[in-house]
């Protein structure tokens, strides 16, 4: 009997990558497209949501009391097989459960790359579309959805449908950034980007404070395809000092002549399964940040694409460092012209009781046409906090209000605690999205803990009344 048979589902306690807000659901593992459809037919009153590799920080891929359809681990099946690369058109068709890591490893050998890579490679194609993930090159290349030509979607009822911008623009855009609430992505056709090597030429620059960091990012974006800034927000004396790294794909003439597309040998380690307490404390973070800021730093160097795009992937299960109570990542986007609000948010974070353990600042280019896509032209700040501080929730609620008032938003894929009333303020096209979602899911089968908490779908909004 197939492991996708709903009767073979396993009750499991699930959390997001942050380890907060656990809930228990019946998890099924479809092996075929028929299994995925059967799971929808067997979903009970608590509905169903898809789950990839569990890298959403909050509760987007959880469904307490309901069903969770696990799309990863379908190696070699029709759902996850990586199809042949169409060289002249530079496209590839992949299964919705395939990981960005597996795809990138396959295409790099032939001189191609995925054009958008987020901060971790451990994301499925379905998850990348549902979250409309972005990378360090958003100011040039946009978010992941901009490079999707088509996807095959399993709706809650009926046969799978192939969705393109031409066939159903509203559904295409509702799925892009729609947090899995329009169906299960079974496959997708993606455009690729030609590369000559698997190396990046990286330029490093120290900055003395937040204003200097912001200036350096603006300058880097004018001449480089990729840019990002690590910020030290644990220092109140040099608030927002950082290291800006800008990069471009290395040309063959710039790289060693041997093994230009060979996979490098990278250092990797894994945090032990049990970490009984939070190891991320203010004193330790302050010492680490000071040492990291002052470390020897070449102005220019070559680095493997994996190390530049996803440096934290070198340390497996790094989220365990935060102990059993987990972590909260706060990621917001602010429109261009709202730099004063960004400064105020950084000021508040440096004086907050919770320690800002890891902070990253980037710039976004123009957003796309998807109603729930996160990026908007301007700035995005992401900060990790240990989840155990009792004052953290109120502090972040206050930040939400400042972000919304400035026309900004919080990223659903990272969120674990935002209040529902903030959604229409941050995502003013939510009703447009709800209409499309209700069209594809009139019975309200698709739902998640995130949906119920934020009242995203029309069905969850009605049930909350």
Q: Alpha-carbon distance between the termini?
A: 41 Å
Helical content stands at 25-40%
Named CATH architecture of the domain at 199-424: 3-Layer(aba) Sandwich
Main sheet strand line-up: 15-11-13-12-18-19-17-20
Average pLDDT, all residues: 92
Shape: globular
What percent of residues are in strands? 15-25%
Q: Tally the helices: what do you get? A: 14
Q: What is the fold-level CATH name, i.e. the topology of the domain at 199-424?
A: Vanillyl-alcohol Oxidase, Chain A, domain 3
So what's the CATH class of the domain at 199-424? Alpha Beta
Largest sheet: 8 strands, antiparallel
Uncertain segments are none
Give the tally of β-strands.
20
Radius of gyration: 21 Å
Q: Would you tell me the structural class of the helices and strands?
A: alpha+beta
């Amino acid at each position: 009997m197939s492991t996708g048979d709903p009767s073979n589902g396993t009750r499991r306690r699930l959390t997001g990558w942050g380890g907060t807000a656990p809930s228990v659901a019946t998890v099924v593992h479809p092996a075929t497209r028929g299994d995925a459809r059967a799971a929808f037919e067997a979903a009970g009153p608590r509905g169903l949501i898809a789950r990839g590799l569990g890298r959403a920080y909050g509760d987007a891929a959880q469904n307490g009391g309901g069903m969770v359809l696990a799309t990863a681990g379908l190696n070699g099946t029709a759902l996850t097989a990586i199809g042949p690369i169409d060289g002249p058109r530079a496209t590839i068709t992949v299964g919705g459960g395939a990981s960005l890591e597996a795809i990138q490893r396959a295409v790099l050998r032939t001189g191609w790359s995925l054009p958008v890579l987020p901060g971790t490679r451990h994301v499925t194609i379905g998850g990348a579309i549902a979250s409309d993930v972005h990378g360090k090159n958003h100011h040039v290349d946009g978010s992941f959805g901009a490079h999707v030509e088509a996807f095959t979607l399993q709706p809650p009822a009926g046969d799978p449908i192939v969705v393109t911008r031409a066939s159903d623009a509203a559904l295409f855009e509702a799925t892009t950034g729609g947090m899995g609430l329009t169906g299960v992505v079974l496959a997708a056709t993606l455009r690729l980007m030609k590369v000559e090597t698997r190396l990046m030429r990286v330029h490093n620059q120290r900055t003395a404070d937040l204003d200097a960091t912001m200036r350096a990012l603006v300058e880097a974006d004018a001449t480089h395809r990729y840019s990002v800034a690590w910020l030290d927000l644990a220092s109140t004396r040099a608030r927002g000092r950082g290291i800006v790294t800008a990069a471009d794909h290395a040309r063959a003439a710039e790289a060693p002549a041997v093994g230009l597309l060979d996979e490098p040998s990278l250092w990797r380690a894994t945090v032990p399964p049990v970490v009984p307490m939070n190891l991320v404390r203010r004193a330790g973070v302050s010492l680490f940040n000071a040492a990291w800021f002052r470390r020897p730093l070449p102005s220019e160097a070559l680095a493997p694409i994996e190390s530049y795009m996803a440096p934290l992937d070198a340390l497996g299960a790094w989220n365990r460092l935060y102990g059993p109570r987990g972590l909260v990542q706060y990621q917001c986007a602010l429109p261009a012209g709202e730099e004063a609000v960004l400064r105020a948010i950084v000021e508040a974070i440096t004086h907050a009781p919770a320690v800002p353990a890891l902070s990253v600042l980037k710039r976004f280019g123009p957003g796309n046409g998807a109603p729930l896509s996160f990026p908007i032209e301007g700035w995005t700040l992401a900060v990790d906090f240990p989840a155990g501080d009792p004052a953290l929730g109120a502090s972040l609620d206050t930040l939400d209000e400042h972000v919304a008032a400035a026309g900004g938003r919080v990223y659903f894929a990272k969120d674990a605690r935002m209040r529902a009333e903030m959604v229409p303020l941050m995502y003013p096209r939510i009703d447009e999205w709800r209409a499309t979602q209700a069209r594809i899911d009139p019975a309200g089968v698709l739902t998640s803990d995130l949906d119920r908490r934020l009242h995203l779908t029309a069905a969850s909004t009605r049930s909350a009344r």
